Amino acid sequence: MQDKNTTESTFFQLVEPILTQNLWHRISKTVESVDQYVKKLKTVQLVQLVMNAEMKQYTSLKEISNSLNNDAFAKALHLESISTSQISRRFREMSTDIAGIIHKEIVQTLGLRLGYNTLRQSLGRLYLIDASTITLCLSQYLWADFRKTKGGVKLHQRIRFDGDPIPDAATITVARKSDKSQLEFLIVEDEDALNVFDRGYLHYKQFDYYCGKGIRFVTRLKNNACVEVLRELEIDEESVIEEDLIVRLGKGKSRMEHDLRLVITKDSEGKAVMILTNDFDIMAEEIGVIYRYRWQIELFFKWIKQHLTIKHLFGKSQAAVVNQLFIALITYCLMMLIKYKAAYQGSLLDIQRLLRECLYEPFTSFMQKLHRKGPPTKGRQRQDWERVYEETMNRVFSGEMDDLIRSTEIL
């Protein structure tokens, strides 16, 4: 049983979604003999230990073990101490199905909490699909062979995007697995869903299957693709779209059975961007906007690599690596839940930083500090000279200060 002080803490509010009896009942049905012979460090305690390490960016098992020197943390976990060898063994033996089930549960909880905003009303539910490789030392991770001198694992990720990137589904493979090999596990088949992915997922047979099943997608076409233009669609003269075409891809036996739509626009550098879709109803300009949203999944990968611990691994076995990556995603989702529970409009990084400082304080105290505004400044304000310098140089290079420079030379 949790006492009142514990349940009112910020830490409990953070981890509460993974403590429910229903969740662990489902896990026990899927994974046989969970914690059957475990006397110390139950699976739920292990997950919380690693979550704490992810959030605080620990890089070693020793730091995880030492984290229990914090009396408040030890009390919250009902665990006085644990050795690095015990952590390593339990993490290695923990079934990857457990972390996967917890991840799905938290994603579902987050989806119910957020709902969908106006983006869904105009474009449908937007799902972004991509993969990111985490390089490993081949001599230490022989099972993750990638190239002659490198090892690696690949996080294949689906993001549900309706204003905030929410990790919706993931598969983890060795890095040599191609991106398109995992597309069937990440694609969303609902009629209301619009799947967006990069040109690394180009697969004519799968595209024919999606067209036949009414599964909508937007992707980018490779420059060397074999394209037969069937007809041109009208575009507005003032549109940023250069061409809107009905096409058929492939040739010979690889020729597709279904027509697709090819929209050609330009990026910020003036280079042509060829965007492919099987949705013939949305406007060409909207297709360009939708594909730009794909960048949000790149920002997500960058965020978790910078602010969670996924580059420093706590185990060398495949199970340990997969468990750590899933727990990182779980940690991200739980922090998102705290952000929305607190009705905070700032960044997720603000949430993470404050959680590190106030994790064992009452949640009401955490809320007050999160929403507290700084006191008004008094007297003469300090000038931000670095910002002034940058703005001045930008004006010089843009030519805005040419007249001022010439007049100074005359004087």
TrEMBL record:
Presence of the UniProt keyword RNA-binding in the record: no
Keywords in alphabetical order: DNA recombination, DNA-binding, Transposition
Coiled-coil features, chain-numbered ranges: none
GO biological process terms on file: DNA transposition
InterPro entries associated with the record: RNaseH-like_sf (IPR012337), Transpos_IS4 (IPR047952), Transposase_11 (IPR002559)
Domain of life: Bacteria
Residue ranges occupied by any Transposase IS4-like domain in the UniProt entry: 125-334
Annotated Pfam families: DDE_Tnp_1
GO MF terms, alphabetically ordered: DNA binding; transposase activity
Record's keyword annotation contains DNA-binding: yes
Classification via NCBIfam families: transpos_IS4_1
Family the UniProt entry places it in: Belongs to the transposase 11 family.
Protein name in the entry: Mobile element protein
Species whose genome carries this gene: Desulfosporosinus metallidurans
